[in-house]
Structures are given as structure tokens and as C-alpha cells.
Amino acid sequence: MFEKFGEMNSAEELNELAENLFNERDLDSIRILAEENGIPKEVVDAYTAAELPVLCDVMTAAVGKIEVEVKELKPKEIMEDWTEYLKGLCMEEEKVAAAVRKKGKNLKGCIAELLGWSFKNQQPVNKDIIKAAGVTAGKVTLGIPGMGRAKKIIREYYLGDSEEMRPLVLDYKEEAPR
Description:
Blueprint lengths: L10 H13 L3 H10 L4 H8 L9 H16 L4 H15 L1 H8 L5 H14 L2 E2 L2 H6 L8 E2 L4 H13 L6 H5 L8
Antiparallel strand pairs: 1-2
């Protein structure tokens, strides 16, 4: 995924490297850097033409990283919904976008958290529903988090259990810690 330049920890790191490459007039490497990090070609063209002062902002760097990860993971259905939610969140909140860009935080890890919750919270499916679905298995369980729970898990994965996260957790009708 980040073959030539490695994973960048922030938009600032991306911009610093891009500026150094620009000063060296190494435009091909800027294009490779941008491609590895999901920065759109139009933005790269504007940057290399000196029409933009930086290659990316925090949101562009985060959404770009997600886009690169999506190409590798190829999420489907509910995982696509989770990914789209995350991209929207990056566009709304700079602190989330900055957290998404951090080394070691990635879509695989986020989806793994959601999957882990799913397996830990499986519930038996009513036999009438199983029969109506035409499923012949003796026991069926399901543990997909609702969107409110998924949003909480996604935020916790990227932001952690920080002071700034606690008011957001309460938005999902969880009781405050005593």
C-alpha cells in the first residue's frame, strides 16, 4: 500500500515530503507519493503547477488513506456503509481525520473491531424467522451492530477512550460511568 514512501503519520508529514520533492523538482515522486496516499490527480496537478501551497489538508489526507485501503480491502455491503460513515466523519471533524491518518490506525483494524463486537454479541435468531428465510441450519445467530453502535466502535477505534470521546459515547444512550 505505501510501497515507496511508507505510511505517513499526518498531513503535515505528507506536505513536508511533497515540498522537499517539489524543491528538488522531482514531480514524478510527488505523483507516486500522492497515488500511494489517495490524493486525487487534479490536486497533484494543481500542486505541481504551484497553484496550491500544500499537497493536502487533514481531511484530504485522511479520506485519501481510506480510499487506498478500500482498494485493497474491497469492502462490501455493511462494511461499505461503515467506510462511507468514516469518510463523512473525516470531512466533518478534523480530529477524526487526523486520527485516521495516524500510523497503525487503518480500516482493517477498524473493521476487525466491528467484527470482534459482532462475534461477542451474537444473538439467537427466532426459529420462525429462520424457517421463513428458508435456512435449514439448526441454530442461527446474528451479531451485526446497529449503526449507532457501529459509529461508537469506529470512533473509539480511531480516537480511543479519551476525555473528548466520552460526551460522544453518551450520545448513543449509554449510561455515564459512575
